[in-house]
Amino acid sequence: MEKTLTTAFSHDYCAVAPGAADGKLKKGAGYWPCRVEVADGHVTLSVETAGVIDAAPVTSVQIVTPKWVRRVGAGTVIKLNGRLWVVDFGRVYQHEHNQTNGPGRLQTVFRPSTLAKCIRRARELNRDFTTALLTAGAADFG
């Protein structure tokens, strides 16, 4: 019998970067577009060009998002295999908008209405991501 993959959350256009305990980014390479996936009890961060960046069983994942990052709501700081990662969904709306309207019809993110839509979409995806982590057994240290 073939095993079927149960995906609780998956998105291909988030940004992932090494993080610090205070929620800020560390110096070093960040990844975009990055695929983040919560499936079959594992969380995986990967990039098409480099493959898997980090992966771990969800039960070993710690959500360590500082209060100020939680207030914004567009990203989450997680600890995987002893490393901190900032998973940010802030660029998703712009990508989705450009895919819908074509690359020649770029819209600036700095218009107030677009910025509000960008934040709303990022918060929605981040909420889905953290819910999938918590449902699969991640610990929240917030």
Walk me through the structure:
By secondary structure, the protein is α+β, with helices and mostly antiparallel strands. The chain has a single domain, classed as Pleckstrin-homology domain (PH domain)/Phosphotyrosine-binding domain (PTB) (PH-domain like, Roll). Helix content is 28%, strand content 35%. The protein has an 8-stranded mixed β-sheet with strand order 4-3-2-1-7-6-5-8. Strand 6 (75-80) and strand 7 (83-88) form a beta hairpin. The chain is globular, with a radius of gyration of 15 Å.
DSSP summary, beta strand count: 8
Question: Helix/strand/pairing class, anyone?
Answer: alpha+beta
Mean pLDDT value: 84
CATH class: Mainly Beta
Portion in beta strands: 35-45%
How many structural domains in the coordinates? 1
The number of helical elements comes to: 3
Radius of gyration: 15 Å
Helix amount? 25-40%
What is the CATH superfamily classification?
Answer: Pleckstrin-homology domain (PH domain)/Phosphotyrosine-binding domain (PTB)
By CATH, the topology is PH-domain like
Report the end-to-end length measured between terminal Cα atoms: 41 Å
Main beta sheet: 8 strands, mixed
Low-confidence stretches: none
Shape: globular
Strand arrangement, major sheet: 4-3-2-1-7-6-5-8
Itemize the secondary structure elements and their pairings.
Blueprint: E1 7-18, E2 31-39, E3 42-47, E4 51-57, E5 62-63, H1 67-72, E6 75-80, E7 83-88, H2 92-101, H3 112-135, E8 139-140
Parallel strand pairs: 5-8
Antiparallel strand pairs: 1-2, 1-7, 2-3, 3-4, 5-6, 6-7
